[in-house]
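Aim 2, interim progress: modelling of the S-adenosyl-L-homocysteine-bound target.
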Amino acid sequence: MPSRQNPPEKMMFQLTLRRRGISDQAVLRAMEEIPRDIFVEPADRDDAWCDSALGIACGQTISQPFVVAYMTEQLQVRPEHRVLEIGTGSGYQAAVLSRLARLVYTIERYRTLMGEAEARFKQLQLGNIITRFGDGGEGWPEQAPFDRILVTAAAPAEPKTLLSQLKPSGILVAPVGRGPIQTLKRYHGDGKGGFREEVLCDVRFVPLLDGVAREL
Ligand code: SAH
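Predicted structure of the complex, ligand included:
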């Protein structure tokens, strides 16, 4: 019999991630350790372990688990890293990153989402996540440079301001494009101030918007 910590839907969740090509053991473990059901709307709890994106407050979305795992794997996070995430949303991606990195800085432009995410981090005792309500497009200059930057909203073009806050040999992963489908790109610092750009796959993210939200 599966134990309570390992219900069948959670085992399927891991299996789906493996089958779809996630092979980094540390990433798989982090995905296993973070209870996604805490991050979805109460009405969606039964669907929390399905491999699909779900709606959250403020008209935003919690990404599909495979996309979270894939972006995390492509970011190549190590235990000593300080990681910046743009677009806290539910807080799920930040929580997964917090299991892999030393410190996670995350920025959200909706106060309501930020507050709810902070409550979840507290509940799960994830003490290495530092939050900020603000415009993530501007990054977090006071805490820069970062080893890794993950953008979880679609940037209209190359995110230059964020790239300027990356360490010389750092990695930034971001969906880039203006349409409903964007290109997931990975930028590797070449150690000399330049970047090597790699195209990873097509993705669907909500847009990275300017400024903070005026509504709650
Ligand atoms: N990482 C989230 C999902 C991201 S959805 C999770 O794991 O649940 C994208 C989020 O980016 C939304 O919450 C949206 O409000 C936020 N966002 C969009 N533009 C932003 C900006 N300029 N600064 C900060 N957050 C932004």
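The mean pLDDT is 95. Strands lie at 54-55, 61-62, 82-86, 103-108, 129-133, 146-151, 166-176, 182-189, 195-203.
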